[in-house]
Amino acid sequence: MKKPIILTGDRTTGPLHLGHYAGSLRNRLRFQKDHEQFLLLADMQALTDNAHDPGKVRRNVIEVALDYLAVGIDPECTTICLQSHLPALAELSMLYLNFVSVARLERNPTIKDEIKARGFGRDIPAGFLCYPAAQAADITAFKATMVPVGEDQAPLIEQTNEIVRRINATAGKSILAEARAVIPKSGRLPGVDGKAKMSKSGGNAISLSASPDQIRAAVKAMYTDPGHLRVNDPGTVEGNVVFTYLDAFDEDQTELDRLKDHYRCGGLGDGTLKSRLEEILQELIAPIRERRQLLAQDLDHVLSVIQEGTERARERTEATKKEVTQGLGLFRL
Ligand code: TRP
């Protein structure tokens, strides 16, 4: 039987952090054995809000690839490829832009949020507004049916499927497959300061190569329940950042439930909770950090992984482009 196809990716704007790990890297690790998985180093999409700093986008191609390999993405199972070197993605993007309206792009909740967060005002780069069509090209060019992403990306998959239906309807046959977002149940991991989104620029992230001291400091600074002043006071679990992290990373569910009950009744100190979380995070991150340091000493190897992956991806994406242009009945020379 053919394995289901997965495509997902990351903008190459900085190294990945724990939020990425909980949001999608962990799912990708789970899937890589029994799915055909492609990971896209999305340097073209990174330019849509970083055109002023192409150097940053270039440098982070290697950083993100290092993160993939360090967390355990295995290039024998997963194809890692570079967006800017897959011309079919750009060509399909141009084509798809004709199957989506500007009003629909402006209504996309992800785009709306990101425009606000980036403070573009009226100066929205056209490439930025249109990147949902490009992301649809990424997903469909691989004929992916599963897209492991954080929950903020769901509206982009929805818009992808609208484009898929329009293309198929215009072609009069089913050329492209619809995809579904695979989103972790635990929801989005907040920043250590409790803000909804963990981000490097927000200064509230724990990087996947954080040192033991950085991990300790981040956990120490983490918000708990501001009403939990004395150990014996009853505490609140919901919205308590330390518990949210334990929910995401503590594998001992029974013990975690017990701790929650204890915390709610009073008598369990924030310090005890934090040491448990710190230990879990130290254990999670140490092997990632060590593998990353080793891999960083052999960048030629990392480059060859990207190169070979991109070649494999090129074949795949060119084939889909041909199917789409022919399916739509464009002129053939
Ligand atoms: N939008 C994703 C991010 O912000 C990156 C990305 C580009 C992507 N192309 C994709 C994700 C295709 C899933 C599928 O990191």
Average residue pLDDT: 96
Using the alpha-carbon principal axes, give the shape: globular
Count all strands and give the number. 5
Number of domains: 2
CATH T-level topology of the largest domain? Rossmann fold
Give the termini distance in whole angstroms. 36 Å
Radius of gyration: 22 Å
**Strand pairing plus helix content: what structural class?**
mainly alpha
Bound chemical compounds? tryptophan
Major beta sheet summary: 3 strands, parallel
How is this structure best described in words?
The protein has 333 residues and is mainly alpha-helical. The chain has two domains: 214 residues, Rossmann fold (3-Layer(aba) Sandwich), CATH 3.40.50.620; 82 residues, Tyrosyl-Transfer RNA Synthetase (Orthogonal Bundle), CATH 1.10.240.10. Helix content is 55%, strand content 8%. It contains 14 helices and five strands. The chain has a three-stranded parallel β-sheet. A two-stranded parallel ribbon has the order 4-5. Strand 1, helix 1 and strand 2 form a beta-alpha-beta unit. Helix 4 runs parallel beside helix 14 and helix 8 crosses helix 9. The radius of gyration is 22 Å and the shape is globular. The two termini are 36 Å apart. The mean pLDDT is 96. The structure holds tryptophan. Tryptophan binds next to strand 1, strand 2 and helix 8.
